[in-house]
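Project standup — Tuesday

K.O.: blocked on the structure for the chain from last sprint. Re-posting the sequence here as requested.
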Amino acid sequence: MDTAESSSTLNKIQVQRFKPDDNPDKHYLNEETGLWSWLTTVDHKKIGIMYLASITFFFFIGGLMALLVRTELWTPAKTFIEANTYNQLFTLHGAVMIFLFLVPSVPAALGNFILPLQLGAKDVAFPRLNLLSYYLYLAGSFIAVYAIFSGGIDTGWTFYTPYSSSTGGAVTTMTFGVFVIGFSSILTGVNFITTIHKMRAPGLTWDKLPLFCWGLYATSIIQILATPVLAITLALVAMERILGIGIFDPALGGDPVLYQHFFWFYSHPAVYIMIVPGFGVVSEIISTFSKKHIFGYWAIALSSLAIAFIGFLVWGHHMFVSGQATLASMVFSFLTFLVGIPTGIKMFNWTATLYKGSIKLASPLLYIFGFFFLFLVGGLTGIVLGSIALDVHLHDTYYVVAHFHFVMVGGMVMAFLAGLHYWWPKITGKMYNETMAKIACGIIFVGFNVTFLPQFVMGSQGMPRRYFNYIEQFQPFHQVSTIGSYILGLGFLMVFYYLVKSIYRGKQAPANPWGSRALEWQISAMPPLHNFHHTPVIINGPYDYHKPMEEFQLGLAESGNGHGHDVEVTKEGEDLSAE
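H.V.: unblocked you, prediction finished:
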C-alpha cells in the first residue's frame, strides 16, 4: 500500500500521536517485583489487582458465613450452632459482602485497572490518593474483621437502632471499620470523576466515551454525595453507645426512625454504587460479542445518570411499615416505579444490540445472559415490593432476601464475573480454560436459582427472614435452598481454580482476543508501564464495528518491539513518521 493510500485509510481510524516511551519493553508487572514495590506502587493497574485480591479474600469469608447459615437452617430447630452465633453469622455475612466486597468490587477493582486504559490516560488523576484509598479500604476491612473476633455483632448489617445502641458485642468497632471504608469510597469517586473530566485522550469526546466509564462516572457521583451520610450516621451510633447522646433514643428526645431515614438515604443509592458500574460492563461485553454498535448510546449513558439521580429519592420504600406519613409512602412508591424506567431502557437497548448481531457465545457473554434473567427477576420483584399493599405483607420476609440477592448476586456479581473474564487476558496476559468457564457459569446459574427461587415462595407464605427456628412447613424449601447454596459455592470455587491456574499454566493471550474496537484492546496483551507508548488521538468510538477490522489493524500497527505503534499521523491523515 503506497503512502497516499495509507494516509487516506488512516484518516478514518483510531490512531496514536506521541513520542515513544524511554523503555517500551517494560510492562506493569516487570518494573519491580518485590513486595515493597507493590505496597508503595502508584500504578493504577497494580492497585486494581490488589483490590481484586482483597475483595476475593473477603468474598470467600462472606460466602463461608452464608454456607454456615444455610446449613443451620437445614432443620427447623437447632442443627449445629447456637441462636446467638447464628445471629452473628448472618449479620457478618451481610456486612462483609456489602461493605467489603460488593461496594468496591467493580468500581475499585475493575474500574481502577480499566478506566485509564479506556480514556487513553497514563494513570488516574491522583495516583497517590488512589493508593491511599486502597489502604483506607484495607484498614477499615481489618477493623471490621477484628470486630468478628472481639465479640461479634448481631444487629443485622443495617445496625438498626435502638438495638444497635444497647446490645453488647463489637458494634462500635464494626461501625468504625465501615466509617473508614467510606472515606476510601469517597476518595475513589473524586479520583474517577477528575480522571474522566481531565485525563481523556485528545478526540475522546463525551459521545465517544465508553459506557463503562459512564457507569463509573454515575457511580462516583453517588459515592461522593451519599457516603458521607452513612459515615455521619454510623458515627452517631458510636457516639450514642459511648457518650449516650440520645439522638436515636426516645427516652432522651431522640427518634429511632430517624436512623432509618439516614441509613437508607445512603443504602438505597448504595445499591446503584454496586449495580451501575455492572451495567457498564454489560454494555461493553454486549457490543464486543455481538460485533455491533451499541444501540441507543446516549439513552444508555444518560440512563446511568438518571438512575444515580432518582436513586437518591426512593429511600422511603424501605420504611412503608415504619409509621411514616401515608402521602410520603405514596410518593416513595411512585418514585420506586419511576427508577425502573432508566433500567428498562438499558435492558431494551441491550436486547436491540444483540438483535441480528454476529454473536459469539464466549463465557463473558454467557455470564451476561445469566445477568439478564436474574436481574430481570430482581427488578420485577422490586416493583412488587414498591407497591405499598404488597410490601406490608412481604416486608421482612424471605421474599425480600430473595429479591435483594437476585439484584445483587444475580445482577452485580454476574456482571462482575463477566467483566473479570472479559478483561482477564488484559489483566494477566493469559487465557483461561474456556470450557471450564462455561461449565462454571452454568453451575453458578443453576445453583443460584435453586438457592433463591424457593425463598420467594417461603416469603410469600409468611416465612420471616433472620429467624433461627421456623415451622416445619418451610423445611423442604429451606433444604432445597441449602442444597442450591452448595452448588453455588462449587461454581465459585471452579472460577477461582481455573483463573488462578491460568496465571501459571494458561496460554499467552493475544493483544485482542475478543476482536474488540475499544481502546484498551488496541495495545499489547499486558499493558505497558505507562499504558500507551503514544498518546492516543481518538477518531472513532469504541463501538464502531461497522468499519472493517483491517482499518483498525493498519492504524494500530505494532512497532518492532511488539508493544508500541509505528505510525504517527494527524487527524487529517498526514504521515509524520518520515519527519
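K.O.: great, moving the ticket to review. Residues 83-119 form the longest helix (37 residues). The chain is about 65% helix and 0% strand.
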